[in-house]
Design goal:
The chain is α+β, with helices and mostly antiparallel strands. It is rod-shaped and about 165 Å long. Helix 2 packs antiparallel against helix 3 (78-84). Among the domains are: 206-309; 311-463, Heat Shock Protein 90 (2-Layer Sandwich), CATH 3.30.565.10. The longest helix is centred in the N-terminal third of the chain and has 49 residues, at 15-63. The protein is built from ten helices and 14 strands.
């Protein structure tokens, strides 16, 4: 008997935890990526915004340049610095340089060596500053050349703007992340609800309810439900085998055992030797019938049990037929030694259980020995892409009207008599069902009668 600890399932980790951890990891990676993107975007946006102010101020200063007596005169407009006053804590420097690099007015700022650079970053008074350069060309008689206007501004306001943009973006991302986490939690709960429905369906059942689970589930869980239903079906079949064996044993064994007890009591009270010998003969005959019935009951239960527990493997039906004849010869003392084998040269391969197939073949041989006429032939053959194994004899066989019920248990149409249990063809039929085949009964001629198993052939041998 299994204890609670033995039937308790092994837990690895919660499915909810796995899904939550996966979602949190994805969101965390996404947040880090968004943070880097937001910082890069904020820095670029702040850079472009203030660069426009710088270039605007430099253009205004360049536009105010004019010539007097061949010299460049600078009239700095106030509006040029009003644009830069939007960053009150930043320092602003400027310089106007002649064509030969001499300082005309302003601060002595080191211009970049690369000509044509509009913006560049350098240091001024120990601080990082961003500079813009605008070049104005003069082509007059008194002056011919270019004048460079360079204006710079420290970068504190830029950093603050970049940080503010990044902070706002991260706040928005965090809010979206919280909403997405809540929605993900609801999605996980909704995705796991079919499992809860399956759990409730099974928990609400009685121990006798082995009907298939009928719960509306998504396609991804349908395979689990199908596997569970197949498992329930196997349990139901096993219980059916057990119930059938118990019912058959209690019903079919009670009468012969009672008869044996009565005959034994008569033999014990009988004083006449001849009558005693006759009673002992009846006891012997009834014990043989009881032994045969018991063997067939157990064989029938075993065949059905093996259908769910034994994997099918490639089997050559010629070998099965030969083994069945050999085992029958060894187990029966009154067997007609004229049992023949009709086997082809080529293998007859099917996917099956050799033991079950041999048991079915032995039951066909025993039926032919008990009810048929010699010669008895055990054959294996290929027929219309199917693998066949069976027994042929010269007897009249079962009337054709009784063929449909021949595979039923304990049917009188299957040859039940005082010396027959009527389970031989039921065993054959059970083996056919376990191999996805069928039992066939035919009369090849007026003097022949055969019963055989028709089974699916292995694909490579089907042609």
């Amino acid at each position: 008997m299994m204890t609670d600890s033995a039937i308790r399932p092994r837990f690895s980790s919660s499915l909810r935890f796995r899904l939550a951890a996966g979602i949190i990891l994805v969101l965390a990676i996404g947040c880090v990526a968004v943070a880097f993107a937001a910082f890069a975007y904020g820095r670029n946006a702040a850079q472009q915004s203030f660069d426009r102010l710088l270039i605007g101020a430099a253009n205004q200063i360049a536009g105010s340049l004019w010539l007097r007596d061949g010299e460049v005169v600078v009239d700095i407009p106030v509006s040029a610095f009003e644009l830069l006053s939007l960053a009150p804590r930043d320092r602003v420097v400027y310089g106007v340089f002649g064509d030969d690099g001499t300082l005309i007015t302003g601060y002595d700022i080191a211009a970049p060596s690369v000509s044509g650079s509009t913006f560049f970053t350098d240091s001024f008074a120990g601080e990082t500053a961003r500079f813009a350069r605008v070049t104005r060309q003069f082509a007059e008689r008194s002056f011919f050349g270019s004048v460079d206007v360079i204006i710079g501004q420290t970068t504190e306001a830029r950093r603050e703007l970049a940080q503010q943009i990044t902070q706002n973006a991260l706040i928005a991302v965090a809010a979206i992340g919280v909403v997405m986490s809540a929605l993900a939690a609801l999605a996980v709960q909704s995705a796991l609800s079919p499992l809860h429905r399956i759990e409730r369906d099974i928990a609400a059942r009685s121990s006798k309810d082995l009907t298939p689970v009928d719960v509306n589930v998504p396609q991804e869980i349908s395979s689990l439900v199908h596997a569970l239903n197949r498992f329930i079906a196997r349990i139901d079949r096993q219980l059916h085998v057990m119930r059938t064996l118990i019912a058959d044993a209690s019903h079919q064994l009670r009468t012969p055992i009672a008869a044996l007890r009565v005959q034994a009591e008569l033999a014990a009270d009988e004083t006449d030797r001849e009558r005693t010998l006759r009673i002992v003969g009846r006891i012997h005959e009834r014990s043989r019938n009881l032994s045969r019935l018991t063997d067939q009951l157990l064989s029938h239960a075993l065949i059905i049990h093996r259908a769910d527990t034994v994997d099918l493997t490639p089997v050559d039906l010629r070998t099965v037929a030969a083994d069945a004849v050999e085992e029958t010869d060894q187990s029966m003392s009154n067997v007609d030694r004229a049992i023949r084998l009709a086997l082809p040269e080529a293998p007859v391969i099917c996917n099956g259980d050799a033991f079950s197939l041999a048991e079915a073949c032995k039951n066909l041989i025993n039926n032919a020995l008990n009810h048929g006429q010699p010669p008895i032939t055990v054959f294996a053959r290929k027929e219309d892409g199917r693998a066949c194994i069976g027994v042929r004899d010269r007897g009249t066989g079962i009337p054709e009207a009784m063929w449909p019920n021949a595979g039923s248990r304990f049917t009188r149409n299957a040859g039940v008599s005082a010396t027959s249990a009527g389970l031989g063809l039921a065993i054959v039929n059970a083996v056919c069902e376990a191999h996805e085949g069928k039992m066939r009964i035919e009369r090849p001629s007026e003097t022949e009668f055969e019963v055989f198993l028709e089974l699916p052939m292995m694909p490579e041998d089907a042609g």
